[in-house]
Each structure stands twice: as structure tokens, then as C-alpha cells.
Amino acid sequence: MVRRWLTRVAVLAVAMGVSGILWADPTLPKIFSSNMVMQRDRPLPVWGMAAPGEKISVQLAGQSESATADAQGRWQLRMPAQQAGGPAVMIVSGATATVRFENILFGDVWLCSGQSNMEWRTKNSDNAAEALAAAQQPQIRLFDVTNNKAVAPLPLTDFEKSPRWLECTPETVADFSAVGYFFGVELQRELGVPIGLISSSWGGTRIEPWTPECGFADINELADIRQKVALANPTSALYQARLRQYLADTEQWLTEARQALAAEKPILTKPDYPKEIVPLSGNREPTTLFNAMIAPMVPYAICGAIWYQGESNRHDGPLYFYKKQALIGGWRQLWGQGDFPFYWVQLAPYNYGASQPYVLPRMQVAQTSCEAIANTGQVVINDVGNLKDIHPRDKRTVGKRLATLALKKHYGQDIAVWSGPVCVDMTAAAGKARLRFEHVGGGLVARDDKPLSHFELCGAKGIFVPAEAAIVGAAELEVSAAGVEQIQAVRFAWDQLAEPNLMNREGWPAGPFVVGEVPVTNDLQERIAEAAGYHPLYVLDITEKTNYHNEPVPYSVDRSKEFGGMTVDRIGYCLELQKEGQPLQYVFVSMDAFTQNLAQMGVPTVQSEAFFQCQVTNMTIASNVSGVPVGMNLSGGNIEFWPSNYGPQNQANIPNASSSKFDFGDGGGKAKDKGYGSMQVHNYEKKCTLIAFNRWGSGTCELGLGNNPQGNPDWTFTSNAGQYSLRRLTVLVQLR
Length: 736
Known about the structure:
By secondary structure, this protein is an alpha+beta fold. Helix content is 18%, strand content 29%. The longest helix is centred in the middle third of the chain and has 27 residues, at 237-263.
């Protein structure tokens, strides 16, 4: 796989006109330089470019191998494995020139990647002066990859700047990854072997750009990303078919334009170039950072990787598991070293804004779920975060915990504790839940000797309330709350601001978790009789500012998989809004099913491919909002669901609708264009907007119950979400 992939890299480089493909002298990627650490106890790939047909010989530590450059000038060979040690010299000889690398060590090479918390420099971490004073570490070598992005895998020689291996000194490590450095220091101290650290990270980046194209294959949950990458790849069938269609449409337009010119008739504008086949080039686009900042070092032998990323993907929730699976699987496939170790840092508590308190714990639990991937592990750091700083400065603790994890899981050292407490079981009886933990070390304790914090539990209604927790044994807790007798589930640290105090005696903290079965109940039917008999499909606590075009809709309840394959008779929507200090208002509306596609019943994102501008039948409406019509089996219902921009024109000729105001009869919406976004339910006979959820693609969204008393009746251009302290949309289904 590695050789075939390297061949493709060179072919793409030729196709893109990269200079210097036909080398006269032997040339190696910049991952090879003096002062490098080469991976011990593993065959060592060495590769480069030379004149076609040129014989290349490589001498390393008294051993020699040779290869012949192919017709494109590529050559590759494997040097025999070496034991830890050095220094050594590597000499690469061609027909007329020789390249010499000196001061080479053999040890363990670790790749350190992610976004800004991995990129964070040693000189900016806590106690930097002390750390730098002790940084004269000749057995540690550093390789810092320059930020770069590319539309296709590039040879390392095409980096905009020229990184090289450096000995670790106070000067060289000052601007190097602090987490990587402290990780490496701990490993070197414990193992006594050379450590090579490759830092390849970029602040603010998502996980998708670090993932190779092959990583997205065969993961159904990422089919939209896989298609996006394929459409932008000139070698793919999808790209070629779309471009042929565009060329055919353009040729047809040219023919019609010439005819119109001769006949002196008007002609429509020419077809737009398809946006979906424009090359991916931004640093947030899938594959672009892998292509430029990881691919050039593949297949340089490594020991494993550490990863600190997720802030920019925090809205992904459970989907992050599949994205991490794609990243790890893609890297492992291309490196061809099997399931090398891959360890990461769980995100620390931080105030991302009052409107999204539960986004972070959902993401943290998703990160924990990634430990199901073979030969991986996670460290929790909710005890060393900073609620006011997304970049906690205590990087030494983070690096040391990662090193301890590696020493236990990869190196097999006899370490008793390498994790915080992990809840593995719950039993409930007589109004108390008993939780059992693993990884308790010397026993469960409170870090500050205060009562245990941030526990909640829920009863039969599925509503979580604050709870008290007490340690009842070395590995068990009891949790209870007044008034809750039938405990269904317990959750812990379920808030972005949670800095819980539960840890083991060795000082490793517990991370967020939910244990038990949280009931999914239709609590609306207790307040709204018309909602009886419906099942919640989606529940969405709407944030003031949304970005559903670029991030998955963060439903707190998503039962689409559970209901898959069932027949839906009716669909219901309930929007609940409440201003601070005022009564809750709602509109519930149901109708005969207008689709059987569960994804298209929710927020109509581009990914859902939902577009509905249609009338609906047998509408039932219940509300406590003045002016909203109520009743059962009403006629005159219609919906406007789309992800795009739209205008006030009454495109569908909805009775009673205006062509100049945004109301229950607008137009111009498209299924596959990202824009303002509309999710509106109306009754045109009553001349009423019932539910409006607009501008959810990006920016401050718009919400409305009934007609807007001022301006556009459907609440377009109000940007009013900030007025409400509670914003909840529930999508319900009645099943056959």
C-alpha cells in the first residue's frame, strides 16, 4: 500500500507541474537530515528521487542496501532494523553525487499532531523558565513541520520552508510543542533511549483536514465527506462525470448562444462552473493538511502518535468517533506499520458561551468512546484546565500523563495507575444508585476533600436533577437526590464549566460519563393533549448562534436509527420559547407524513438533502400563543424547508401569500445550496406562520411562534434568538 501510494504522489506531482521531479543527483525528503532519530527495532524505509535508471546505494551503521530509480526517478529501499543507540552516519550515493547525514540516533519516533493546544509553545507554558533551563537534552531530537496546505500530496521538498531535525536545547525547544516536549522528556527519562519528536499541528483546525482520502472509505457515517473529497479529485469517476456534464451543458449553451445571436434573440447566462469540483485547498477542508503536513513524511518509520484536538469539532458529538476512526485508520493504512499506538487528550473545561453548556460534555464522551479503536488511549485533564482560557498553560501534566499512558500500554511497564476512575456499572434500588469504578488505584477520593461535585441523576421522566454522591468503598459511590425514587441514569460533569473533584488517590481525575438508560419520553403530552401518542424523533436545544452548514445538528435526542425502517403516519413539530422571567410559549403542529425519510424531517441541512415547499394535510395545532389558530384536521397547511437563501416572491402560488413580504409563501429556495436556511410551518388559510426557525446555517438564528407583529410575518431578518433563555425544537412521529 505504501509503495503504491508513493507512486500516486509522484504522478500527482508531475501532473501539477511541481518543479524538480527529474533529479540529476540523489535527493531525499527533508524528513531525512542530520541529527534525526530513526525508529529502533524496525526496518527503515528510505526513499527519494534520482535520475531515471540511476543506481542508489545507502550505507547506515555499517550496513548497505541499494535500489534503482524507476522511469520517473523514484527509488525506495528498506534498511535493516537497528537497536537503540548512535550516533551513526547515513551516506546516500548515486552515480555522480553523495549525500551525507550525521549525528543520527536510533530510538523511538513519535508524531505529535492536532490543533492549537498541541501547537502551544514550550516558552508560553507554565513554569517555562524552569523547563527551558533543563532543556539541554541531546538524546531528544525535534522536527517541527511548517504550517502548509495542499490539494494533493506533496513531496516534503515542496514545503514552503525547510524543516530539519534539531538537537533539543533551550533555544530549539522554546518554539516547539510543549505537550510533545514534556511527553518526550518523560519517555527519555524512563526508557533511556533517544526520542524523536515530530510536531505537525495547526491552531483552529478540524480533524477532517488531517485525514487522508482513504480514511473516509467504508465509513457510511462519513459518506458526505467521502463524496466531497472524491468530487474534488480529478482522478475520480465522480469528478470526471461532473466535469463532462458541465462541458456538455456549456457546449449546448454555446450552440444556443450562437443561434440566439444570429436570430437577435436574448440568451440566458452560461452554466456556472460546478462548485463541488473546485479543488479543496483551505486549511479546514478534508485532506488538505494531511496532504501537506503528514503525507510528505510517510512512510518514515515511527513508534506512534499523540493527538490533542477537538475544540473545532466540539459540535460533532457522537460523529467524532467516526472521524477519529477515519483519521487513525487512514494513517495506519498508509504507514503500513499495523496498528501503531495512538493516544490523545480529552478536551479541558472551558466557557464556550452560555448558550451551549452541554456541547462540550457530549464531545468529551465521544472522545472517550474512541478508546474502542484498537491500541488507543486517552488522558483526562479536567483538573488542570482554565475556564477563561481555551489554552490551559499546564502542559507538563498533560505531557506526563500521555507518557505514563504510553509507558503502560505500549512499553508494558509495571505501572499501577495510568487512568482516572472509569464508571463501569450502576445498580439502583430504594432511591439510591450505586456506581462501581475501575482504575481506582488506592481508592476513590475528592481532590479538595469537599463533597463530590457535578453529579446528576434522572428518574422515569428522563429529567436530570442535581444529586449528592458519597464514597462507600474503595471503588464505589452512592448517588441520590431528594424526590427521585426510581433512578434510571446518572451523569457526571455534564457541563462545559464542570471541574469535578472525583479522582483516584494517585491524582488522576474522572472524566464525564452517563451510566444507565436515560428514558426518552414524550413529556410534551403531559402539557399538550394533542401530542399524545407521538414519539420524539429529534430534540434540539437551539443555540443563539448556529452553524449547521458546517457542523452536524447537535440533537440531544436522535432516534433516527431506532426508528429506521418503520412507517411514519404523522409528523409533529413543537417549538418552545421562553424569555427570562416570562411564561413559556409553544406551538405544537402535526400533519400527515410528507416524507418517510427520517433525516429530512429534522433541520433541512444540505447534508439531509431536504427541500419541501408543499402543502400538508390534516393539520392539528395546539398553542398558548395569542393569535395562533388551533384545531384538529385543519386544511390549509404548508411547509417551507430548505437550506438556501430565499426571497419573498410567491413562487408556489400559495393562496393569500404576499409577493413582497417574507411570509407563508416565499420562493427561490434550493436543496443543495448553503445559505440563510428556512424551517417554517404555516397555515395559509389562516394567513399564519405557525413555527419559524430561520438562519440556522450560520450567525444569529431567528425563531418565531405565530406571525411576527412587526416586519416580515415569518420572522425573516429578525435575528432574535438572543431574546430567549429557552429555545427547544422537538420533532415527533406517530408510527404505524
